[in-house]
């Protein structure tokens, strides 16, 4: 394993939409190999979330980018609200594959998030060994159940928003759909990453969720801690 992405190293995963941070949480390195970097995101991890009009139930993707404030929405302290997840980020790929687990450790299915990824160091420079993994979300997702039935998620909003200057181009949309169909075929065939690999993953008990909350680095473009 690479010296910098050593087992258990704490990194920060940030999800952006149109350059605006939606959510950020600490993750731990759970492995690294030819297939990519593995990360563990624990349920309840402390982090940040955009403070949006409409309160805690509001989601950034539901708001018209033309009406976002010029400086972006501020961030407020929050916690990861979904289940724990093992995340595989293949090198150079425009997607990440998530293995979701319930609180008792039961595997709940796969989730493919289509995205652009950039890593930054603490000085805000692009660095493949940096501590901040910044993910620009491309809206469309693929969900795969434990029995390998798959479906698109957010297909309608993906189509409507394609071509918006803050989001993704028509060319990117074509690539996302092609990648999605290729991954769906892998799921149907039961081949990696949908072959049962890591479905029994259990993190060390001392990883926990008692991690330090810290604000985004100088790579931040929109939004800041409130």
The parts where pLDDT drops under 50 for at least 5 residues are none
State mean pLDDT (0 to 100 scale).
91
Output the number of helix runs: 2
- Taken as a percent bin, the fraction of beta residues is 35-45%
Helix content: 10-25%
Name the shape in a single word: globular
Distance between the termini: 37 Å
**Largest beta sheet, briefly?**
7 strands, mixed, barrel
Write out the strand line-up for the largest beta sheet, numbering strands in chain order: 1-2-3-6-7-8-9
Computed Rg: 17 Å
InterPro entries: DUF402, FomD-like_sf
Organism: Streptomyces albidoflavus
Protein name: DUF402 domain-containing protein
Pfam family, one: DUF402
Written description of the protein model:
Helices cover 12% and strands 36% of the residues. Strands 1-2-3-6-7-8-9 form a 7-stranded mixed beta barrel. The protein has helices at residues 155-161, 170-189, and strands spanning 10-17, 20-33, 36-41, 46-50, 75-79, 84-89, 95-101, 107-120, 132-144, 150-153. With 226 residues, the chain is mainly beta. This is DUF402 domain-containing protein.
